[in-house]
């Protein structure tokens, strides 16, 4: 958004998005905030710079053009681009702040009102380029409450948890179409004592956060995790850091699968080239572990239609090289429609077919006879959606047990699902989560 404010830097947005699409990326995570700083979106509480808002409009419109969807973060825990520090300064300056502590962002009633007003303005914003309100725009993949929240003044985590529950419910009251996550780094707190040993070091349990507890509310659709071993450890060898990365990912994938029953996204990870003795091969080793675990070694499990992770296991038929996973439905959406079942497909498959419709393709996912699929508790037998033209391969249903369905798929295609004008009658959205092709691309 920041680069889109001025004419001389605006072309960078298109160039970055086009490069990302060419690489096969399907989701881009970026900021939908800049509070009280240079090129501020929110200049003071409730006062917005229309030029900067139009820059955000432009980013969303450009993402639509290249078939990339956006995950938009709403505030920063850090000082960069204002963050929670700016909200506290505003309240303190106006004489309504309870405390100069940055953590008062989470418990000060006045600041909560500031933030709610901001969120409502963003979600109900009508894009000046596309004419679509943000809350109705399928280009937006989902919302992130806050980037890397920490509340060190309350180790119990109660303060942050109360804020998450209130703000996530508020967002869902305005926008029940998009996915929502917290924006966590993934640290375990006192409420998860058995997992504290998985933290990078002892200090992580004192950050006032808890991956499991914070991700558990029904208003949170998927969990998020970051991985920065070089920032989290004072002294540890490269070998030790790489072992931590594997253990860290396994523990969160397992918690998403067995405890939360929700998808887990690794939304940020990196190894700094500023480290003493850094060599690019070290980063290559780090990235290989991350992508191998996401793409090959972790289980593919879908609980009530939500993809937890992707890869190959002994429960899943072998997939082609760049595997993807498919989840049908979302807890934030209406139940998917029922319809007729296919009659000529193998026992373990569903069919995805496409027909032309005013420049779009109608994709029909049809369940096999006598097979009951569920998405968030709702039976699925037939779903029709309009999408951009793309090539689709058969989707394999590998297990059906009550309300739990397991899906895998070969490369579904890179085009994002967007409703055609006549698709308003559809009763749900079909989400393709391209986890293997996903990593964070931040456009500042």
Describe the structure concisely for a colleague.
Keywords: Glycosidase, Hydrolase. This protein has helices at 11-23, 50-66, 83-93, 104-107, 109-123, 158-174, 211-215, 229-232, 238-260, 280-297; strands at 27-31, 42-44, 47-48, 69-73, 140-144, 179-181, 223-227, 264-269, 302-303, 306-307, 325-328, 349-357, 360-366, 373-375, 378-380, 382-387, 395-401, 404-409, 430-433.
What can you see in these coordinates?
- This protein is α/β, with parallel strands linked by helices and 444 residues long.
- It is built from ten helices and 19 strands.
- The strands form seven sheets. Strands 16-13-12-17-18 form a five-stranded antiparallel sheet, with no helix packed on it.
- The protein is globular, with a radius of gyration of 22 Å.
Q: Strand order, biggest sheet?
A: 16-13-12-17-18
Output mean pLDDT: 74
| Strand fraction | 15-25%
> Shape, please?
globular
**Which structural class best describes the helix and strand composition?**
alpha/beta
- Record field, number of beta strands: 19
Instruction: Flag low-confidence runs.
Output: 297-444
Helicity, in percent?
25-40%
The CATH topology label of the largest domain is TIM Barrel
Strand count, sense and closure of the main sheet? 5 strands, antiparallel
Radius of gyration: 22 Å
CATH superfamily of the largest domain: Glycosidases
Number of helices: 10
Order of helices and strands: HEEEHEHHHEHEHEHHEHEEEEEEEEEEE
Distance between the termini: 6 Å
The top level CATH class name of the largest domain: Alpha Beta
CATH architecture annotation of the largest domain = Alpha-Beta Barrel
Number of domains: 2
């Amino acid at each position: 958004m920041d680069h889109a404010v001025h004419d001389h830097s605006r072309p960078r947005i298109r160039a970055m998005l086009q490069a990302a699409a060419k690489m096969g990326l399907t989701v881009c995570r970026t900021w939908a905030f800049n509070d009280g700083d240079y090129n501020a979106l929110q200049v003071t509480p409730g006062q917005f710079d229309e030029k900067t808002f139009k820059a955000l409009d432009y980013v969303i419109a450009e993402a639509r053009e290249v078939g990339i969807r956006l995950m938009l973060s709403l505030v920063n825990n850090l000082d960069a681009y204002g963050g929670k520090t700016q909200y506290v300064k505003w309240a303190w300056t106006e004489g309504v702040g309870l405390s100069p502590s940055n953590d008062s962002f989470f418990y000060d009633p006045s600041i909560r009102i500031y933030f709610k007003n901001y969120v409502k303005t963003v979600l109900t914003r009508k894009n000046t380029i596309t004419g679509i309100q943000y809350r109705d725009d399928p280009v937006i993949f989902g919302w992130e409450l806050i980037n890397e929240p920490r509340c060190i003044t309350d180790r119990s985590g109660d303060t942050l948890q109360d804020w998450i529950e209130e703000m996530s419910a508020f967002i869902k009251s305005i926008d029940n179409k998009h996915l929502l996550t917290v924006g966590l780094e993934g640290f375990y707190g006192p409420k998860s004592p058995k997992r504290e040993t998985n933290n990078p070091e002892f200090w992580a349990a004192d950050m006032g956060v808890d991956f499991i507890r914070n991700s558990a509310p029904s208003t949170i659709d998927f969990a998020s995790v970051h991985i920065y071993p070089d920032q989290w450890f004072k002294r540890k060898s490269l070998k030790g850091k790489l072992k931590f990365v594997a253990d860290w990912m396994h523990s969160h994938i397992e918690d998403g699968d067995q405890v939360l029953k929700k998808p887990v996204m690794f939304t940020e990870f990196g190894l700094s080239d500023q480290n003493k003795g850094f060599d690019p091969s070290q980063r290559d080793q780090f990235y290989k572990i991350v992508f191998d675990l996401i793409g090959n070694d972790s289980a593919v499990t879908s609980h009530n239609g939500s993809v937890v992770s992707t890869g190959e296991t002994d429960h899943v038929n072998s997939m082609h090289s760049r595997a993807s996973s498919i989840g049908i439905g979302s807890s934030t959406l209406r139940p998917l429609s029922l319809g007729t079942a296919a009659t000529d497909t193998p026992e373990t498959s569903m069919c995805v077919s496409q027909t032309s419709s005013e420049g779009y393709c109608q994709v029909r996912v049809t369940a096999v006879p006598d097979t009951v699929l569920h998405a968030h508790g709702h039976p699925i037998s037939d779903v029709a959606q309009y999408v951009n033209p793309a090539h689709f391969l058969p989707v394999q249903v590998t297990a059906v047990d009550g309300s739990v369905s397991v899906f895998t798929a070969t490369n579904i295609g890179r085009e994002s699902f967007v409703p055609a004008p006549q698709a308003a009658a559809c009763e749900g959205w079909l989400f393709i989560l391209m986890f293997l092709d996903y990593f964070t691309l931040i456009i500042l």
